Amino acid sequence: MPARGIDGFTVAETLHEGGMAMLYRVTRHDDDPPMLMKVPRLGEGEDPAAIVSFEMEQMIMPRLTGVHVPRFIAMGGFEAHPYIVMERIQGSPLSALLREAPMPAEEVARLGAAIADALDDLHHQHVVHLDVKPANILFRETGEAVMVDYGLAHHEQMPDLMHEEFRLPYGTTPYMAPEQALGIRNDPRSDIFALGAVLYQYATADLPFGEPQHLRGVKHRLWRDPVPPRRRRPAIPPWLQEVILRCLEVKPDRRYPTAAQLAFDLRHPDQVVLTERAAKMRRDSYLSVLRRRLRPEGAEPRAFATARQLRSAPIVAVAIDFALHDEGLEGALREQVTRMLANRPGSRLACLNVLKTTLLAGDAKHDEQGRSRHVQRLVELRHWARPTGLDETRLTFHVLEAADVADAILDYARANRVNHLVLGARAASLSRRLLGSVSGKVAAEAPCNVTVVRVNRGG
Amino acid sequence: MRIAVFSDVHGNLEAFRACLDQARARAVDRIVLLGDLVGYGADPAAVLDLAMEEVRRGAVALLGNHDEAAILDGPSRMNDMAAAAIAWTREQLTPAHRAFIAGLPLMIEDDGLLFVHADASAPSRWRYVTDAEAARHSMEATGAHTTVCGHVHKPALYGLGDTGKLTGFSPVVGAPIPLGRGRSWLAVAGAVGQPRDGDPSAAYLMIDTTPLQATWLRVPYDVATAARKITDAGLPAGLAERLFVGR
After folding, report:
1. CA atoms of A253 and A250, how far apart (whole Å)
2. Domain count, chain B
3. Which residues in A lie closer than 8 A to residue B162 (C-beta atoms)?
4. What's the whole-model pTM score?
5. Running DSSP on this structure, what letter comes out for residue B124?
6. Considering A121, A131, A191, A225, which one is annotated as catalytic?
7. Which residue has better confidence, A47 or A191?
8. Same domain for A275 and A129?
9. What pLDDT sits at residue B229?
10. Which residue from A231, A260, A310, B103 has the fewest beta carbons nearer than 10 Å?
11. pLDDT in tens, A268-306
12. Rounded to a whole number, what is the distance in Å from the CA of B130 to chain A's nearest CA?
């Protein structure tokens, strides 16, 4: 137990005794948020990795910002008392919900999307967490997932002390990605694999690869596929099995390219394209396992993989307004997104149309012939997208019902971590002068890049 | 405190000015000139004038091997291009420049920060710190927490922990790296006046002391003018050409 007062912090009770560090509740000023102090175990006989991983955490934590990480408050060096003081997240860890597994698919998807949001945020801050597991995932009272413990993390703009010092992989065996077991530490898709293992666990109440005690056991997952979730729990819908097994692919290239795309699928189950993963009811045959074992699929380490991976797989959303009856603009939008998605096989396109609802909408749901306007718009979106030639696995269609078109598009972009919005500019008209421009508002307020497409007519 | 470290200016006035301007705009408190103010470039006198002005205003300057060669007599132990440049440089210097260089120290240590042009284990031998073993040699010879050197013309960072493992890292431009107290560090500043890492922009190093962190920065400058002056001075054409490609 550290001395009661360190650098102005008063140490209260012990919150947690971990293998590598102790957590204490601390206080300082009245207006401080709830705080905890993390102190590494540095005694004789302790794992030297505890020291190095604590150094890493001291390097990484002060650089992280946002709701998905505990706020960094202070740290002390190695001369006296090494420590980090950070915000203490009030909510409970995911591990506290383990007794509720197997959870309903909707609940697994809701939690999974929140965690994927947090991972996407970390990846954009150049960090791969590398120890995604229920005990390291907390939830704020407002619902956002918070990732804690950066002792094994990799920051692509800083020296990776864990890698340089030990070479052998660190991580938590039930959740560790196969390439991580081979020593690769800079692929954000390793976190997607680990999240897949977490989703599997909460959907089935079983771990996909058991609990190997040694690294050798972890390497089994390079060739041995997990029991399909639906075989363990037939109530699991095919779309969830599709999502989970895609996360758990051995080759990172076959997983979701970004956590944002995983969150997207978890939020839109009806849009998940089902492949043979969804239908799989038994593990692969021994022959194919043997074949893989003889020729295991590895992944090659790449420099600066974190940022490059994110850039290679953006979510692009395009908003199309069919009410303009402007085929020229619709074609220009199609050409624009086709160019943006070319040469980025990991990217995907969300096609949006906003169905305006009014407060006086008595007949809004159906047109004169009784057809659903919503369905009609979906048909039009698909028709619009067909000439892009994009594979169906990269396309989704969304009819948003809202009173304000710009707000609907903005809300959609925020909720789905869209990287790039594309929309058309209306030609000058009376309604534009009266109502203001949708594209102008979206461009001003969007949380991402915006491309406004205009058709140059005449002149 | 914020310290800007300029190494290997090599008579490149355009690059030196561009770096000084940027560092000032970033509210730097102290300037360290890490040696090799002259050699290769066409403006040794102007660069020395500027350096002497900075030193009058509180900057710290160290000796580099090219500075030393520029005030010695007789043949220098350098390759042909460098030797040709040194021979030319000697003719450009005034007695005041020579006196300034003659008074420069090899090494300065201040509050755990050690500044030196080359390998700190034998600073006057001008050994290059180009790899992990050379870095270890330099770090183990001094008790400094953080060593800052130049001479190599390529940015790098080495860390040495209690376990004896040495880590090497290629810094990312503009991304601050915390230099934790848990290990000792050796930071190789890039070159202001003749970068050799494939990026022609001028390189310098910014060090913040609380908490201790290092940020490598790059500054675009008027390469064409610096190169033209080299050609006009009759210096080897290779010295001008390499500025365009940073090799």
Report:
1. 9
2. 1
3. 48, 51
4. 0.86
5. G
6. A131
7. A191
8. yes
9. 97
10. B103
11. 999 999 999 999 999 998 888 888 888 766 555 565 677
12. 17
